[in-house]
Each structure stands twice: as C-alpha cells, then as structure tokens.
Write a structure and sequence with these properties.
PyrdxlP-dep_Trfase_small, 15 helices, Cysteine desulfurase, Cys_dSase_SufS, transferase, alpha/beta, 2 domains, Aspartate Aminotransferase, domain 2, EC 2.8.1.7, 7-stranded mixed beta sheet, Aspartate Aminotransferase, domain 1
Length: about 400
Amino acid sequence: MYDVAKIRADFPILSREVNGKPLVYLDNGASAQKPRVVIEAITQAYEMEYANVHRGLHHLSNLATEKYEGVRAIVARFLGAPDSEEIVFTSGTTEGINLVSYAWAAPRMQPGDEIVLSVLEHHANIVPWHFLRERQGVVLKWVEPEPDGTLDPEKVIAAIGPRTKLVAVTQMSNVTGTLVDVAAICRGAREKGVPVLVDGSQGAVHRPVSVAEIGCDFYAITGHKLYGPTGSGAIWIAKERMAEMRPFLGGGDMIRDVYRDAVTYNDPPMKFEAGTPGIVQQIGMGVALEYLMGLGMGNVAAHEADLRDYALSRFKGLNWLNLQGTAPGKGAIFSFTLEGAAHAHDISTVLDKKGVAVRAGTHCAMPLLEFYGVTATCRASFGLYNTRAEVDSLVEALELCHELFA
C-alpha cells in the first residue's frame, strides 16, 4: 500500500511553514526535496567516510571508492540497463547531453548534417546542438507538438532524412507533463539507422524506465530531480555508441599512461570521467534511487496519476485558468496563466504568501512557450509526496489570485 503520510514523514522539510502557512511544495519539476535517508547518507559520508576515490590505498579511500562505484550498479538497475559499465557519471543531464554532443556528435557531423529535435525540449537538449549548428553547420530540424502538447512519434520519424545523424527528444516535457512515446520513436529511427538520445530528466522521476525496452542509444538523468543531491547524475550509453566516442574532458582517472609525447586512455566509462568527481553527491543519488525503487516506480506513477486526475477535476471549475498542454496521459505537471494582466511572477508571489511553492518563468523551454504564444507561465509540478489536500490548497490560492487580478 502506498502510504503518502508515511512517505511525507521521510522528508523533514515538508513539516515546516512558509509565511505562516504549511509548506505546499509544488516545484518538484525544478528540484525535488530530499528524504532523510539521503540527508543522513550525505552527512555520514562527509563526517566519517570522506576521502578521494580510486587513487588511494588507505581504508577511507577504499571505502569511499566502494560506495561511489557501487552507485553505477544502482543506476543500471534503476534504468533497466544490462551492464553497469554503460553508466557514465555526470553532474546532471546537462553535462550528459553535452558529453554526447562533444564526444560523439561533433567528430562525425559535417555541414548540412541534421539533428531532429522536438519543440518540447528543455534548453539542456537544445543549446548543445546549437553549438554544432554554430560551429559546424549542422542543421536543426524541429518537430512541433499538437496544440494539446502531444508529440506524434510518426511526425518525429517522418522528419528523419538521409542526412539525419541523431534524434534528441525528451521522454516527458518539463512544462506540460506530456509523456512522449520514445520507444516508438526509437523503433522508427532504428529502422532508418539513426541513433536516439532521450532526455530522461522528468521521465525517470515519474514512472518506471527500461532503456532496454525503450531501445535508445543514450539516456540521461539528473539526481536532484530524483530526490537526490544537486551535482549528481548519470547517462546510460549503449556500448556500441560508447566505442565511437572520443574523450570529452581530460585529466586524472580517464587516462592509463601520460608521457611527454603520448597519452593512452582508460576504458569506458572511466574514459569519460576526468578529475575528482562529485563523490558524496553520487553516493547520495544512489541512496535516493534505492529509496525510489523501494517505493516502486509503478506505485509512484499511480499516485501521481491520481493527483493529476484530481487536479484536472478541480481546475475545471476555474474557467479563468488557462492550461498549456492537456495531452492524454500527461504527468502531474501543470503550466498555466490566468486571464487578464497578471504576470506569472505576480501569481507565484501571491501563491507563495499562501505557502504554495510553484515555478514562474520560461522553464528553460522558450521554443515551447513561443509555440503556445506566451512569454512566461506558472508551473505546479507534483511529486511522490504531494497530496490531494495540497491540490486543494493550490486551487484556493489560485482563487485568491483571480480575486486580486481580475
């Protein structure tokens, strides 16, 4: 049984007040709160177990290395990956996608070669490809969603041409909560011999993931959205693609031997992990992923689907609330504006006075907001510890906004 009250007790911050009101934290799409087991693991690592990894032979270094390297297998299990050696540690999805851009895409793309993107993408899955457009003449081909935010896999597949070298697509929009059928996209792309990168920043947070079933070539996640620390993350890379990649960063750990006139590189995944890593951050992410797997991602998905449906039922009574993206089966992420002159920042400020934390702005997705004809929205993004009562608190705060700005 999914006991949300018990789960909430695992998150110390949820017991606090903001502006004299109980905290209603609905900014999970930006960064999720941390359960006590993660906080305790980080504290333990710094207080009693800290040392640099890989290069020491003393007890603390061996202990830190064992815990740090053990996270690779945890990530592989969480993502349904067949081999932990296919997991490269990063500081988050942004670094993971940049790694693919620099280490895999840049060496094999010529002027006129294409990358297919959707308008749903976060800037982290746009800007690295703009680098290739600016520097190497790569062409970005854009696929627009339907008005409700749905992304038709067939439209993505149809955009693949003779010069397409990569499809880069999100599994779930961070703005609308649209769930993309990335498995269908991967099947179509594979038939045309084109690799697919999946941005799993949101998708992996809200539902079970199996990269084997998806059939992608790259799948990136970020720890801080997965109830882990900032500065943690990973990217799964199929061994075939990993073998095609050159090193991105140079330094310690990613080498075997360094001479005055030559260098030999380490085997993957170490080949792509230069320098002292975020040791404690990755250990914390591993604990967070174990926590999620203990709850069961299917259970998390079912709980959040209930919150989504309840929120949509409450929103129906607010005829002055404009939702951006209402795709069937979407996640519990809602971007909205209010009729009238109220700016998203003003709405967010009023909600904060009621203890309700939401995000306001462009959500690092300016092409998508342009598609919807808005310059900014508010976003309420729900997580595994949110409740129906918090949906009610959001609606009450929105009704206050409507009274103030109507």
